[in-house]
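User: I'll paste a sequence; please echo it back and then give the predicted structure.

Assistant: Echoing your sequence first, then the prediction.
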Amino acid sequence: METPALNIEKLQKKVAQCQRSECPSAKVCLRQIVRSKCDKTLETVLMVNPDAIVMKGDKCQMYKDANGTTYGVGFEHYFDLLPYKEAKAAYAVLLAYFNNRTQLGRYRSGQLRISPERKAEIDASLRANGVSVPFECDAYEVDL
């Protein structure tokens, strides 16, 4: 699996590196990739404690996907896709999900991002309440 182009210079100062080279996920874990490509002249780096790592199958609790996580940003235009009756139902579901209008407004405008897990929960809740159009955000950001 080919890893995306990474800014190692920036990541080597932000990402805790892992020195457990025998790890089965070493080729796809961001912590291992940064460690292998890190500037060897750096005097200090962030490091994961190898003694605290607990393996769960072929990954550990510190595994970080080198492809990143895709977050949804805003959903102002989602309601444009819905018939009026479904839009009303969707708004009620989203208002209940985000607890209040202020929080809903922050997510809807893109001030706060929506994680993939949260997006899946919202989509399932909308479908359960009769909304036929899958929940889509206006834009998506990949975050390492």
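The radius of gyration is 20 Å. The chain has a mean pLDDT of 89.
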